[in-house]
Amino acid sequence: MSEHFDVLIVGAGISGIGSAYHLKQQCPDKSFVVLEALESFGGTWLMHTYPGVRSDSDLYTFGYRFKPWLGAPIAGAREILDYMGEAIEENDLAPHIRYHHKIASAAFSRDANLWTLEAERTDTGERRVFTCSFLWMCQGYYRHAEGYTPDWPGMKDFKGRIVHPQTWPEDIDLKDKDVLVIGSGATTATVVPAIAGECRHVTVLQRSPTYFIPGRNINELVEMLRQIGVDEMTIHEIARKKILFDQDQFTRRSFEEPEALKQELLAGVSAFLGPDYDMTHFTPRYRPWRQRIAFVPEGDLFQGLAAGKATMVTDEIDRFTENGVLLKSGRELAADIVITATGFHLSVLGDIPFSVDGEPVNFADTVTYRGMMFTGVPNMVWVFGYFRASWTLRVDLLGDFVCRLLKHMDEKGVKRIEVAIPDEAKGMEVLPWIDPENFNPGYLMRSMHLLPKRGSRHEWQHTQDYWREKEEIPAINLDAPEFRYG
Question: What does pTM read for this prediction?
Answer without folding.
Answer: 0.94
